Amino acid sequence: GDITAGLLASGVNRSEQLTLYIDIGTNGEMALGNREWLLSCACSAGPAFEGGSVKHGMRAVLGAIETVRIDPDTLEPMLLTIGQKRPKGICGSGLIDAVAELFLTGIINERGKFNLELRHPRLRVVGDIAEYLLVSGEQSGTGADISITEADLDNLIRTKGAIYAGIMTLLAQMEMPVEAIEQVYIAGGFGRYLELDQAITIGLLPEFPEGIVKYVGNGSLLGARLVLLSRAARDTAAEIARGMTYLELSTNPGFMDNYVSALFLPHTDQHLFPSVLQRVTRAH
Q1: What confidence tens digit (pLDDT) does each residue in 139-191 have?
Q2: What is the DSSP code string of the chain?
Q3: How many CA atoms lie less than 13 Å away from 154 in the CB half-sphere?
Q4: Which of 59, 71, 106, 205 has the smallest CB count inside 10 Å?
């Protein structure tokens, strides 16, 4: 239902261009195609992008950390929150930002493990779990420290790996390279805050040119509204559903291969991400 509504709202079913539509949430639902054909799949990404399974995670509401930058020399963070309020936690886009910055500055390695040899005051071990302190309790809106833990990193890497593997499996099914995609629509609760270069840095998305990526917000909600208001839209949604081929990833051997390969930052094959290699080289 979500993916059908999203395709209706974004007009992928009317497009001449080869389009990838991604709805990023607890389930990573995506479709590849155009007006001629549509191939879809869904992968269990987990709730990390929506604030779940993250120690200080929260939804993208007032007080959520949405942007993170880390100074490569001092390793100190600069944060922006939604509504410019005191930070209360970190939302999906902030988490992607934080992990990308931790990786670019060498605070974590490609496996998402902290480099404790840096002996920086923000790097510490609490209860046998390493973490990086983003905000002290004195500066937060809750009175408690806000940090990124190694367990958070593991959850995020599994989440981004599932999304990336789903995209690559769709492409492999159609024997198409990433470069064949002419436009990308990103939907989901936090999609409007997502920074493309940071999403690419952690390997959530392939190296798409910025000009082909568009953010559509909550596409499923918009599609549902269209169906409620228009009989013609309801008929079109039914046509989309009937005409779409569903790819079951749990029985697709290529998906697990893609998934395991994506459990690194940004990927086991770093040459798939040349721009990230350049950023890491410059940062180090």
Answers
A1: 999 999 999 999 999 999 999 999 999 999 999 999 999 999 999 999 986 65
A2: -HHHHHHHHHTGGG-SS-EEEEE-SSEEEEEEE-SS-EEEEEEE--SGGGTTTSTTB--SSTTEEEEEEE-TTT--EEEEEGGGPPP-EE-HHHHHHHHHHHHHTTSB-TTS-B-GGG--TTEEEETTEEEEEEE-TTTSSSSS-EEEEHHHHHHHHHHHHHHHHHHHHHHHHTT--GGG--EEEEESTTGGG--HHHHHHTTSS----GGGEEEEESHHHHHHHHHHH-HHHHHHHHHHHHHEEEP-GGG-HHHHHHHHHTSSSS-SSGGG-HHHHHHHHHH-
A3: 9
A4: 71
Rounded CA-CA distance 90/68 in Å is 10
Nearest to 108 by CA among 190, 24, 201: 201
pLDDT in tens, 179-192: 999 999 999 866 56
Q: How confident is the model at residue 24 (pLDDT cuts 50, 70, 90)?
A: confident
What are phi and psi for residue 113, nearest 5 degrees?
-105, 140
pTM above 0.90, yes or no: yes
Confidence of residue 51 (pLDDT cuts 50, 70, 90): confident
Other C-beta atoms within 10 Å of 72: how many? Answer: 14
